[in-house]
Amino acid sequence: MKNDKYEKIVSNNKAEETRARNAIVAFLIGGLVGLIGEGIIEVLCYMFKISRTDAGTYMIVILIFIASLCTALGFFDKLVNKAKCGLLIPITGFAHSMTSATLDYKKEGPISGFGSNMFKLAGSVILYGVVAAWVFGLIRFLLGGKI
Amino acid sequence: MTFKFDNVYVSDTSTVAGPYEKKGPLEKYFDKAYDELYFGESSWELAEQKLVEDSLKILLRKTKKKKDDISLVLGGDLSNQITATTFGTNKVRVGNAYFGLYNACATSVEELIIAASLIDSKKIDNAICITSSHNMTSEKQFRNPTEYGAPKPNSATFTATGAAGILLSNDKSKIKVESGTIGKIIDYAQNDPNNMGAVMSGAAAYTIAKHLEETKRKPEYYDLILTGDLGRYGKNIVTEFLKEEYKIDISKNYNDCGTMLYNLDEQEEVQAGGSGPVCSALVNYGLIMNKLKNKEIKKVLLVATGALFSPTTVFQGQNILSIAHAISLEVV
Question: Pick from A42, B129, B201, B311: CA 20 to 30 A from residue A8's CA?
């Protein structure tokens, strides 16, 4: 049942959101994570004399490890809350979504617990990541790009 | 639907709270408060059961009752299949009969009305009403993994951690259960699970208006009218909507438990205020009982408010329904 009077009072009492501030915080922290990632690539390329592509893969693994460790130690959720989406959008957020879900369901056992709940949040990211890669790959192919 | 009660009294109450509630302004009114969220247990679900167990044991001790002296236990909470209160009550093995009830955060007053009706009609001598919620159990069940910590909008409320029990009896005491109003399911086409104040205010307004109409009372009859967990935005919505729709002004003697359980200015993590079935129960069975016992207030109307939904119904795009029940307590 729609009640116009009620709807009007509800919209007059909306909570104020600090969207601009949240966006700036997320932009700066997300950028910082990117900067750290780039730094890791440079260090890996320089120290181990490997290609940038290989260094990129190792960088992702390192960031996933750090984020998962922080989640497991129990303080990453507090950082995420402060950093808004700055830590959730980069690869750190992907790692965090899996580790946090795994921790939540450890008591329910390896099969019906963390085994089936690990991808509760990350499942969507993987599915749409693969779909998006397919779509953009197709577009690149049609535009005559290299496969 | 309003009932009057003649021989139902509050024997005593017990309140057990978690760390966020302990940091709030009502710490001294809790019988027990923990500093962390596991309470020595190995899962959130076991931790919530532990709260129920503690609360029941404290209540038996305070009222000097044996486990078999209790005719009926009524329990309810937010966990799936209301396991927290059922399992917690089973651990204490209290009472000769058990009722499991669910009306989300309106469960505590739902229990009080049923218990009072059974005592008033002389079917039972006494009953314990117990309710609980745990911030982490609720987060896990209704939202994201507990370690995820995704930012929420400012209108979101924070599920309180604790368990609270009350013993109603036909033995005379200082506090009388005077009357109760059973609410009905309200649907004002709200669908934002992060704005529960907007979901439940309509139900609160309906039940308050109905109670005043059926008892032929004015809001001033009560020293205090308290809603359960509308939070800082819902509090304004219910006041304004009662004035617009029902021409009732409650602004002078009204407050909301969700805004009283925490220090809203300092405890930023609670955002718009407390919620969960135990939010109103902790305030009512702690602070309000204390005020009634000391005769600081003599007549109070407790209106517990509940949002009726499941994560599945929300994902399917169905509206979030709401309900509110009211109970009137008076100092004899």
Answer: B311
Using CA coordinates, name the residue in chain A closest to B320.
A1
Q: How many domains does chain B have?
A: 2
Cβ atoms of B118 and B127 within 8 Å: the answer is: yes
Residues A82-120: tens digit of each pLDDT:
888 899 888 999 999 999 999 999 999 999 999 999 999
Residues 6 or more apart whose Cβ sits within 8 Å of residue B217: B211
Length of chain B: 332
A 11-40 residues with CB < 8 A to B:
12-17, 22
**Rounded Cα gap, residues B317 and A47, in angstroms:** 54
pLDDT digits 0-9 by tens, B197-208: 999 999 999 999
CB B281 within 8 A of CB B164: yes
Of A1, A76, A88, the CB nearest to B147: A76
CATH code for position B57:
3.40.47.40
Chain A positions touching B202 (Cβ under 8 A) are 3, 6
User: Which of B42, B48, B147, B318 to substitute to test the interface with A, most A CBs within 10 Å?
Assistant: B147
Query: Looking at the structure, do residues B150 and B204 belong to the same domain, yes or no?
Result: no
List pLDDT tens digits, range B132-149.
Answer: 999 999 999 998 888 888
Report the length, in residues, of chain A: 147
- pTM score: 0.93
User: Domain locations in chain A?
Assistant: 19-121
Same domain? For B17 and B102 the reply is yes
Q: For residue B106, what are the domain limits?
A: 2-169
The amino acid at residue A7 is E
- Tell me: do B182 and B258 sit in the same domain: yes
Task: Tell me what ipTM this predicted complex has.
Answer: 0.88
Nearest-CA distance B149 → chain A (Å): 4
